[in-house]
């Protein structure tokens, strides 16, 4: 019997769309904050066949926003628990849960071909770029999503609209001068970064890249040992405190006095005894001016830990935490000292950095931060907002309906063509695993789908959500400008030599191929006058599976015989743009009845060649040979060099392109941007773990606004 909810849904959608929803199969990638909201939405929106993939397990920190999980689920796979939780209120829905990395071979093109639409709720640019490349190869619409704090966005990708790689990546790195971190901090972030470097210096592997590396010898001199030569940790901690927050600050103050800096008050030296005396007779904590501080974080035993973490420690408490962290490290974890790296999951490390940064903030008249704030800054965490996740997941669901409307139009068009005997497949043979009956590219450019941008509302803005029409792909996009070819062979036991000779050189007519898989060459064309030892590198007798290829993998094929002259660069000193394309390789025993045991499902489509630069005039006035089309450098008789694998085109190459281009900040995850600290004397450049600030204005489509959920 149809439930009341189903009846309302059918009435709202109409019979046709409702029926298409019921027979749709969806893939949800990610079961975190957005993933939980999205899975719930999809089930309530009428979808009955869903696969969900996530490689993570549930952590206690997820429970405040990932509502499908409870405390007793901690440590269990997110995808499995999400499936079980949904089954409790929608038992008829078929949900297949997978624990694994979306970039594993089992989740390649063959797997993606089963679904009508893919919905992303990922937490890193590399995985998003990979899913983008697979959806392009399999012609599956993709609905992207992401949140960071109160901001978020949804993008519809596929068909005749721009893909993930089409977006121009904007660099949002912050820069801080080295002298600011070392001598003149004026923001809490400066002090937190200084404290992280101090942690690495004291407990990690010392190296010259550490901003405080010159202090290593001075800190060593503060060590205090007993008569047996054993380090007395608490005495050592006291000496370190007085050096860093009193002696060094006194020296800094003298330098500032000499510089006559009238724009800021001089720093305040702080001894350990002075820090411990900053209380009154009632135990209330005092600030530097002697007045009771309203930000005291003294808590009762019954205060919840989450609330206590968000209170700002007093100077007195910071001193206690600082001494306690050093003492604990040397007394209880002495065997780890010298190998540690800062981790936001290590409570002692966070205590140390929080205490040290706040003590330095006190020195320089900077507002102190709570332990929770310091952990967020040091770990580059963007706080997750459950309502933001809910809004973004809702926008994904609305766009999903509109995508399916376009799928229905395409299917009806193909049915009409089939009835008239004019079926047009764009050279693509239907695949046995394809969920959709149609084989033509879906048109989304004029659909009701909208890219949506969720922004922090204020009184000056009239809209919380900004929508924009979908845009056409960039003509020079490395990912979608030339859709991959598609080849089906009987199995992956073909030898590399036979595959290259029969399929690549024979059927695809690539005269001088260089073939890459995962950015590694598996076949390099050799010329007649070259030595035969290249056969050993090519391994022509090795099977495709033995070389690591699998059913549904993507290879990158270049033709050394066909190239266009381009402006030479450091990456391409020869100035040659080789004709190249990606190719999806499927294995299907049913093609054994085909001639030679393979089938070309889709021929290669080459992107337009770049404009040919004007050849420079030779010194003698003759035309140089650099513009002549030839596969070899005839001047020295050596091969002209292999082309680099096209970034963003093969399954792993596209991931590299996304990582290089940058991404965003994960919901509860980490920023993919580091800050660069620049030595204003021009001597050094240092990496700093300061959170990047996503730029997201009205109508912006920059990739740093695309942020992701964990």
UniProtKB/TrEMBL annotation:
One of its GO terms (biological process) is protein sumoylation. Belongs to the ubiquitin-activating E1 family. Residues 651-660 have a biased composition (Low complexity). Residues 606-616 have a biased composition (Pro residues). Residues 320-373 form the Ubiquitin-activating enzyme SCCH domain. InterPro entries: ThiF/MoeB/HesA, ThiF_NAD_FAD-bd, UAE_UbL_dom, Ub-E1_IAD_1, Ub_act_enz_dom_a_sf, UBA_E1_SCCH, Ubiquitin-activating_enz. GO terms for cellular component: cytoplasm; SUMO activating enzyme complex. Gene3D superfamilies: Ubiquitin activating enzymes (Uba3). Chain: B, domain 2, Ubiquitin-activating enzyme E1, inactive adenylation domain, subdomain 1. Residues 11-418 form the THIF-type NAD/FAD binding fold domain. One of its GO terms (molecular function) is SUMO activating enzyme activity. It comes from the Eukaryota. Keywords: ATP-binding, Metal-binding, Nucleotide-binding, Ubl conjugation pathway, Zinc. This is SUMO-activating enzyme subunit. Pathway: Protein modification; protein sumoylation. Residues 493-562 form the Ubiquitin/SUMO-activating enzyme ubiquitin-like domain. Residues 415-437, 598-703 are annotated as: Disordered.
């Amino acid at each position: 019997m149809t439930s009341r909810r189903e009846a309302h849904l059918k009435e709202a959608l109409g019979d046709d769309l409702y029926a298409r929803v019921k027979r749709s199969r969806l893939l949800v990638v990610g079961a975190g904050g957005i993933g939980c909201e999205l899975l719930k939405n999809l089930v309530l929106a009428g979808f009955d066949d869903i696969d969900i993939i996530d490689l993570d397990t549930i952590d206690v920190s997820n429970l405040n926003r990932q509502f499908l999980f409870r405390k007793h689920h901690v440590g269990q796979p997110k995808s499995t628990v999400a499936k079980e939780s949904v089954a409790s209120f929608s038992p008829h829905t078929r949900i297949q849960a997978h624990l694994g990395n979306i970039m594993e071979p089992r989740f390649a093109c063959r797997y993606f071909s089963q679904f009508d639409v893919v919905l992303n709720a990922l937490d890193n640019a590399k995985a998003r770029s990979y899913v983008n490349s697979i959806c392009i190869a399999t012609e599956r619409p993709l609905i992207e999503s992401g949140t960071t704090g109160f901001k978020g966005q949804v993008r519809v990708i596929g068909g005749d609209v721009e893909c993930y790689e089409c977006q121009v990546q904007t660099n949002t790195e912050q820069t801080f001068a080295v002298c600011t971190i070392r001598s003149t901090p004026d923001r809490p972030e400066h002090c937190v970064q200084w404290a992280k470097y101090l942690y690495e210096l004291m407990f990690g592997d010392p190296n010259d890249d550490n901003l405080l590396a010159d202090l290593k010898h001075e800190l060593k001199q503060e060590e205090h040992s007993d008569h047996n030569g054993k380090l007395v940790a608490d005495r050592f901690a006291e000496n370190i405190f007085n050096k860093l927050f009193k002696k060094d600050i006194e020296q800094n103050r003298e330098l500032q006095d000499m510089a006559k800096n009238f724009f800021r008050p001089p720093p305040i030296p702080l001894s350990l005894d002075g820090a411990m005396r900053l209380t009154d007779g009632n135990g209330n904590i005092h600030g530097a001016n002697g007045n009771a501080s309203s930000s005291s974080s003294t808590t009762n035993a019954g205060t919840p830990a989450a609330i206590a973490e968000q209170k700002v420690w007093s100077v007195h408490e910071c001193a206690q935490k600082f001494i306690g962290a050093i003492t604990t490290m040397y007394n209880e974890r002495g065997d780890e000292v010298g190998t540690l790296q800062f981790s936001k999951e290590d409570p002692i490390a966070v205590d140390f950095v929080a205490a040290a940064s706040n003590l330095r903030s006190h020195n320089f008249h900077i507002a102190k931060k709570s332990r929770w704030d310091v952990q967020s800054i040091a770990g580059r965490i963007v706080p997750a907002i459950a309502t933001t996740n809910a809004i973004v997941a809702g926008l994904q669901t609305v766009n999903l309906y509109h995508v399916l409307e376009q799928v229905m139009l395409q299917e009806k068009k193909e049915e009409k063509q089939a009835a008239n005997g004019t079926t047009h497949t764009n050279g693509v043979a239907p695949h046995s695993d394809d969920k959709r009956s149609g084989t033509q590219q879906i048109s989304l450019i004029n659909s009701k789908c909208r890219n949506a941008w969720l922004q922090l509302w204020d009184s000056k803005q009239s809209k919380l959500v900004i929508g924009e029409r979908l845009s056409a792909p960039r003509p020079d996009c490395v990912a979608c400008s030339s859709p991959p070819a598609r080849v089906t062979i009987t199995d992956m036991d073909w030898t590399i030599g036979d595959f290259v000779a029969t399929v690549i050189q024979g059927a695809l007519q690539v005269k001088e191929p260089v073939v890459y898989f995962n950015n590694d060459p598996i076949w390099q064309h050799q010329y007649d006058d070259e030595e035969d030892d290249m056969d050993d590198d090519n391994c022509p007798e090795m099977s495709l599976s033995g070389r690591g290829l699998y059913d549904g993998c993507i290879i990158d094929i270049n033709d050394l015989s066909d190239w266009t002259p381009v402006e030479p660069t450091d990456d391409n000193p020869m100035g040659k743009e080789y004709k190249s394309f990606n190719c999806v390789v499927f294995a299907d025993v049913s093609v054994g009845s085909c001639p030679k045991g393979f089938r070309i499902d889709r021929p290669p489509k080459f992107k337009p060649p770049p404009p040919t630069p004007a050849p420079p005039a030779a010194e003698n006035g003759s035309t140089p040979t650099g513009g002549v089309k030839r596969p070899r450098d005839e001047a020295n008789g050596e091969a002209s060099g292999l082309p680099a694998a096209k970034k963003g085109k093969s399954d792993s190459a596209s991931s590299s392109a996304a990582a290089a281009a940058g991404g965003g900040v994960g919901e509860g995850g980490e920023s993919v941007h580091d800050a660069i600290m620049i030595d204003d004397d021009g001597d050094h450049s240092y990496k700093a773990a300061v959170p990047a600030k996503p730029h997201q204005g009205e109508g912006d489509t920059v990739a740093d606004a695309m942020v992701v959920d964990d």
